[in-house]
Amino acid sequence: MLTTEEKTQAVIAALESIKANNITVIDTRKLSSMFECMIIASANSTRQTKALADNVALKLKELGEPIYGREGEESGEWILVDMGEVLVHIMQPAIREYYNLEELWSKAQTARPKLAKAP
After folding, report:
1. How many domains, in total, are found in the chain?
2. What domain range is 10 assigned to?
3. Which of 57, 83, 86, 99 sits in a 20 to 30 Å window from 66, CA-based?
4. What would the mean pLDDT of 24-49 be, rounded to a whole number?
5. 64 to each of 10, 14, 61, how far by Cα in Å?
6. pLDDT digits (tens, 9 = 90+) for 46-62
7. Bridge partners of 14?
8. The domain that contains 100 carries what CATH number?
9. What is the pTM of this model?
10. What does residue 84 show for φ and ψ, rounded to 5 degrees?
11. Cα–Cα nearest to 9, from 25, 21, 22
């Protein structure tokens, strides 16, 4: 099994090899107990979105990592690849701009209350 960092690097390499745009990595360890990292990338077309998702799944499976789920392949505008502690969102630019996950998660980071220190 790969570490979260190794898995993240493998995903980035898979995305870059199919020319994904604007790859962003968000550390969500302090925000969610369900996953540790979110990777967001843009694709120029439905065909590229699907090719990117396929390549991520293929490369991670080659490394022995399970893919727990894939969503959104019917429309191809936004495909989610779930690898447990790492989530990959592959989106067409208009969809990415509309949902603006980067801003949503950065607001969650600033809105989360600081835990009180033990006395």
Report:
1. 1
2. 4-104
3. 99
4. 84
5. 12, 15, 5
6. 999 999 999 999 999 99
7. none
8. 3.30.460.10
9. 0.83
10. 80, -105
11. 25
